[in-house]
């Protein structure tokens, strides 16, 4: 290969990497716009927001969901590039997981035993599952569409990363409305909802991200 050809090839690879990241950013803007529209049609912000976001248990919901979303973006972009080793990035998942586990342990310590189950089940478990999934849907569609521009060796894993991204952003949006603040509730019901969207992303990604 001539030197000029090598330089042109490297330049083309750089342009593709930049376009993948910018394409995902644009797709997320579109998906989030759809999710916010659904939120406006169906829900409303919790009374007292945004002032309540400084309350530790409420703040924890946003720390967990948004840090998971950031980690999932990182993972998705790595996984859609052939030959990329995403294993080191998996450790970044310890940030949202660790924050949530700290909140759960604190809740169990400071809350009397009879208060554990009410905190776990809350007032809106079914609504949480359905609404997080609903608001994650436009984000998932947009994210997978953008990730199609990559060439993942493991489309199912890349799709799962896109699903985790969509689920966590849907959960963060729902948290603006949610009145159940116990970390136990977040662990179980937010966790199930995000897990469902992650599984959906994996199954869809296995088909649409294959090349």
TrEMBL record:
Membrane-spanning intervals of the chain: 24-43, 58-77, 89-112, 124-145, 157-177, 183-205
One Pfam family this sequence matches: NrsF
Keyword Transmembrane applies: yes
Protein name, UniProt field: DUF1109 family protein
UniProt keyword list: Membrane, Transmembrane, Transmembrane helix
Matches recorded under InterPro entries: NrsF
Transmembrane among keywords: yes
